[in-house]
Amino acid sequence: MATTTNTSTLTSKAHSIPLKASPSPSTTAATLRSLYPRAAKAFLQRDISLTYSLLTSAFSIILPPEIPTQDSLHIHRRKWDILRITLETTVYASPPPPPTPSDPTDTLPPALRSNLLLSPQSLLTALHTRSLRLFTPSSPPQKPNPAFLPPQVLVTLVLGCLKLECEEVGRGMIDDWLARRGEGLKDEDGYEKVLEVYCLHVLPRLGEWEYAKDFLQFENELPIEKRERMIQSLQYDHAQTKASRSTPKTHPPRTPSPTPSTSSSISTSSTHTAVPLTPRARATISSFTPSISTTSLASSSSSTITPQRQASPHLPFLNGNANASVYTNGSATNHPTTKSRQSLSSVSSPLPHPPTLPPIQRSSSPTTPNILSLIKASIRPHLTTSKILSFVLLFVIFPLVSLLVRVRRRKLSGSGSGAGVGSGMGSGSGVGARATAEEVRKSLMVRRFGEVGVVGRLWKEVVRAVGDGVRMGGRGLV
């Protein structure tokens, strides 16, 4: 019980009292070594406040190195920076719920709460710059240099970029590190890990499969075995990605419906029985009138529709059964036959298939309509009864009536003029006057109608009647 109390007291002190830098590097290393397990355990238990408090206490005594070759805190600096980057990216990706009126306590420190206001690119760039400043030697004074960034810290930053879907930012970090790598300390194991993340994770996320393959083929620092292993892994991942994109989505199969009973199959499939049109089947149908339908209905209770060859007791079953079952009045009677016994020992000859109709050959080239059909199609909408009657009345009956009226008027006027001439002249010259009047009438007819026959006269009368009708319609008389 006393131990628990002491632990709680130390924890509360770690929250409030930051550690001071010790002049002895060994003392600083011992302090960092004792704090790190507690910070890692608090992070695994999702105790963000305690983890951040221990990180703040640790980095209060961790300073940039003065000389890279004589840095005794290099391992502790790397471990604590990796833990800090992991905590901040994890909180940014999945932050805890904000305080509510029912629970006003805020478990997130203000510094981590302010990180949530940044964009992913800005946050990752800030973390990268802070790490560069932490590992760049202070003597002589210089700008943050990616060459001094440990590969393990770089891999942690790039994995954070992948977690926050900022692959371009991670690629820029690795490119800067590879460009300045020769200036700092070399770590072959870390270099291999950086190339693995770069070629197998970052570049494939960006779709740069060919560039990653070319990069590994022209790389000359890794051993051949490790380089070939990376190339094979890259090719396998590329093939899997192509297969996943080309394969269509498969829908789950439909659950089979339960097998219907004999009574349900009789009531539902009585009109859908398929029977082969063979002489033997016809004889069977004629011999078993009520029972054969029952047999076909009982056999059609399966999920697929098959030709009803079980109707005849002389035909072997397709499924290899030795006995042919015939249902009569709801009961099944088995009749073993010689052919059915032979079907068990050897494969029977294929049963005759029902005759199929020859396929209908349809001409692929469309028929082009001729001129007559086009004319009929254009005239057909106008050939209605009312329009035909109007056409006949206007262009046939009305001109004929007008023609008859004109002819009758001419005859009446001719007879009147003949009578006048006969009264004015003497009786002796009556025949000559009548002949003269006849010649004058003919000359007038020739002048009026010309040398045309009956058809020409009829056409002129039709034209004149139509013109009169149009003029009367224009004057409002019709």
Helix percentage? 55-70%
- Structural class computed from helices and strand pairing: mainly alpha
Distance between the termini: 124 Å
The ordered H/E elements are: HHHHHHHHHHHHHHEEHHHHH
Query: Strand order, biggest sheet?
Result: 1-2
Q: Tell me the number of helical segments per DSSP (H or I, 4 or more residues long).
A: 19
Task: Tell me the Rg in angstroms.
Answer: 55 Å
> Average pLDDT, to the nearest integer?
72
Largest sheet: number of strands, sense, barrel closure: 2 strands, antiparallel
As residue ranges, the low-confidence spans are: 1-18, 261-351, 421-429
How many beta-strand segments?
A: 2
Our estimate of the beta-strand percent is under 5%
Shape: rod-shaped
Keywords:
single chain; 478 residues; mainly alpha; two-stranded antiparallel sheet; 19 helices; disordered N terminus
Describe the structure in your own words.
Keywords: Membrane, Transmembrane, Transmembrane helix. With 478 residues, the protein is mainly alpha-helical. Among the domains are: 169 residues, no CATH class; 35 residues, no CATH class; 86 residues, no CATH class. The protein has 19 helices and 2 strands. It has a two-stranded antiparallel ribbon. The longest helix is centred in the last third of the chain and has 40 residues. The chain is rod-shaped and about 160 Å long. The N and C termini lie far apart (124 Å).
